[in-house]
Amino acid sequence: MTIQESATHTGLPAHIARGQLFIGGSWREGDGGGRTDIINPATGKVAASVATGTVADINAAVAAAQDAFGDGRWSRLSGRERSRVLLRASQLIRERATELALVESIDVGKPITFANVVDVATAADQYEYMAALAQQLDGSVRETPLSAHAFTRREPLGVVAAITPFNFPLILSSTKLAAALAAGNSVVHKPASDTPLSALYMAQLLTEAGLPDGVLNVVTGPGGTLGDHLVSHPGVAKVAFTGSTEVGAHVAELAGKSLRPVTAELGGNAANILFADADLEKAIGTVISAFVFNTGQFCMAGPRLLVERPIYETVLGILEDAVPGVPIGDPSDPATVIGPLASRKQLDKVSAMVEAARAAGAKVVTGGEPLELEGGYYYRPTVIAGVDSTAEVVKDEVFGPVLTVQPFDTEAEAIALANGTEYGLAAGVQTGSISRAHRVSAALDAGIVWVNSWALLDPSVPFGGVKASGWGREYGPESLDSYTRTKSTIIAFDQE
Ligand code: NAD
Q1: Which of 467, 49, 74 is nearest to 268 (CA)?
Q2: Class of domain 271-458
């Protein structure tokens, strides 16, 4: 099959269907000549194949990024010049929204409506926001008693290794790339092995937007081999990692050995606290979207619902009636809310965790089984009661459309249950009391807290984790702190 035929066959644009590495501004096969199949999770069939990168390809990508950084073709442009390219990228993302959403949907199984209005729109917003910040990377003058003029400069770091997970390929790569590029760095991007297609799309798009050759390089392939080599490569100045806590800890260890700064956005297992004084109708909508969005494969999902005892049984009854009605199925149908899980591996993991909970005596209120549909990796939205905080399905990250529900009696107990996890990425409070909203949100051990809402995000508002959910902040001006270094210059002058 030719590339053009393959593109038509899969619905993917030709340069994505080709699936080559992007190094030094050129598309090429991997050094070892290998290919990896990319599966469409809605059908279980091959959607594309991409080059399997090797450590030699990582070396070539880092060398290209170093060359680009060293000669200043991007790093020494003014902030305003960089800003124009990022803004153009944002415009191109919006112009090609339909095509880009399709790529993300085929790759990850995302319902097309959400791929469009969430993933693609957020990516465009990221580039637009960082385009503005690129113009504001100022240093400052420091007042001192020295006979000297003292000032600071914000400088880019060099080559950034950007490593991203399978669940939000486009948003998470845009978060890292837009910030790294706004600050003047070069990038080597290693997307998740299962879902690399939008990374290839963006390499082409950014080039069209005017990003000079070599500033962005994309190497697809196995995480362990390529990731370890990239993180340890002496040419890398900073590691920006998003992924699981387990791999994040390993990456931080490798980076630590060479004293390389690393930001780590890791796993989550957020609690959503529903008080009896909340607007119940509104809160139920929030509770459901918090655990089904992105088929539950969302680090900031709300899979642990804590319900104040007087409304516990009522809430279980409402969920039992409402959850089976959430549209699940073909991601290309605009009405679909829950698509397939992103891979067979995820489906098996979610199934096993629910079965273990059932075997341990938990009550499956609704769902609790895969949905057979067109060979895809579907799992019915599932609500589980009769569990406590020691159950695996409560304390571990399930990463599927699964909600556990636990009752509580007091505000203090709810806070203790919410904080009683190794993770600390997000949390939610549903309440009609403004005092309680302040009290409880301040007491929650999480990087971001939503009150009477879930997953409201904006490029201007920082997010990131505490505890095992990682360190560092993305989004907002805070993001640029980790992509720049501050240099102090002191110019002595003679007093008359
Ligand atoms: P993962 O940790 O398995 O993989 C993440 C990335 O690391 C992938 O690109 C993978 O190929 C790469 N990798 C694997 N082994 C590596 C190694 N030894 N060295 C360097 N890189 C390596 O995560 P995943 O399964 O793709 O994603 C799901 C996880 O990501 C969940 O835990 C989720 O909570 C987390 N996540 C966190 C955030 C956040 O912002 N905090 C956002 C999305 C996902």
Answers
A1: 467
A2: alpha beta
